[in-house]
Write a structure and sequence with these properties.
374 residues; alpha/beta; ten-stranded mixed β-sheet; five-stranded mixed β-sheet; 31% helix; 30% strand
Length: 374
């Protein structure tokens, strides 16, 4: 009897080992980037950048053929449709393969689409099991189709790896990035203020094939409400959590110095109730001077110079964004500690009070000199 039972169990397990939903890699067309513009005959004009295996993973210029405008490592297809998934089906039909978003690392949105709101698109991505929650999101200064067409990596043949690196850290001044999960949970679900980088391509006559950043797009809820400059990225990253490092040029009158600035601890925030409310921000920053053109006599003078620059700059940035954007850094979470019940917190109406708050910034700067000394 036991032998019969074992045989029956083995037979029952055989279907579970099959690959009924398996597919060959050659049957799929992998989207590495996507851009959404306003359509002419349909609500959306969606451009999909499919990885071209012959060029993307060949490791050189040979393979895949082609040249001129088609010399990039992607094949771009633009489709007008009601939604992104029906557009993906049509794009796949055009190239003769099934399109998939499982390897997509970048989603671009035109300013017109972002101003109208990204709630629906972000929710669609989150419901799609094949879309990665760590997809990088960005607003595009030009039509998204033009930006994707201009992508021609010089030192990286894999477009997926190139885009992942490009939108996580920019050469020179770092530009903050935002993933799909971060944007959806903060802006769409919680209705808080947020940020997406603005991508832009260089002029074809000056720098063909060059892409970069052109500031930040501010969101309230899921809708774009304004823009920030590239210089604002420095203060934004200082006030965010996580490790941050960059070089910054500090100028005061005729004195100019360059510092290697590092922050490894999340800023401490305290909110004091009142009319108006007071927001106290404390940061710990390490700074190493990389030039001595300012003629500092000792490290204490360098420390005072950098501290004054950071305190004034961060305070001005907080005051500017408080009025034009809202609680961009989630200071409301610190304000909630002043209330016992959720009903008291809701009646306090932090969103209306925050633009009139007063900010105090205290930066604890540690200056270290590196290299040879006399």
């Amino acid at each position: 009897m036991k032998k019969i039972l074992c045989v029956c169990l083995c037979i029952a397990l055989l279907p579970l080992s099959g690959c009924y939903d398996g597919h060959e890699i050659e049957q799929k067309a992998y989207v590495v980037a996507m851009g959404i513009d306003k359509g002419e005959t349909a609500p959306l004009a969606v451009t999909y950048a499919f990885a071209d295996p012959g060029k993307a993973w060949s490791g050189g210029e040979e393979g895949g053929g082609g040249g001129g405008e088609e010399s990039g490592p992607t094949i771009n297809v633009t489709v007008e449709a009601q939604d992104i998934f029906s557009a993906l089906d049509e794009a796949g039909a055009r190239i003769g393969k099934e399109g998939t978003l499982s390897h997509m690392v970048l989603a671009l949105f035109s300013e017109e689409i972002a101003t109208h709101g990204l709630d629906g698109v972000a929710a669609s991505f989150m419901r799609d099991l094949k879309s990665r929650p760590k997809i990088n999101l960005a607003v595009c200064a030009q039509p998204c189709a033009d930006y994707l067409k201009a992508i021609r990596p010089q030192l990286e043949s894999n477009p997926e790896r190139y885009l992942k690196q490009a939108f996580s850290h920019q050469t020179g001044m770092p530009m903050p990035g935002t993933t799909l999960y971060e944007f959806y949970t903060k802006c769409v679900l919680s209705g808080e203020a947020g940020m997406l980088p603005i991508a832009a391509k260089a002029d074809e006559e000056d720098a063909p094939g060059r892409t970069g950043m052109d500031g930040m797009a501010y969101f309230n809820g899921g809708r774009m409400i304004g823009r920030g400059e590239n210089e604002d990225a420095f203060y934004y990253l200082l006030l965010q959590g996580g490790t941050f490092r960059t070089h910054v040029t500090v100028q005061e009158g005729e004195r100019v110095a360059v510092f290697d600035v590092r922050r490894t601890e999340k800023p401490a925030v305290r909110v004091i109730k009142g009319t108006p409310d007071r927001v106290l921000v404390t940061l710990k920053v390490d700074g190493a001077p990389v030039s001595d053109t300012a003629g500092f006599s000792d490290t204490q003078e360098e420390r005072r110079f950098l501290t004054h620059y950071l305190n004034e700059g961060i305070k001005a940035y907080l005051e500017k964004t408080a009025y034009s954007v809202g609680d961009l850094f989630g200071f409301g979470r610190a304000a909630r500690r002043n209330f016992i019940t959720w009903q008291e917190w809701e009646r306090y109406d932090w969103g209306d009070r925050y633009p009139f708050a007063r900010f105090s910034v205290e930066t604890d700067v540690t200056v270290q000199r590196n290299g040879l000394v006399e």
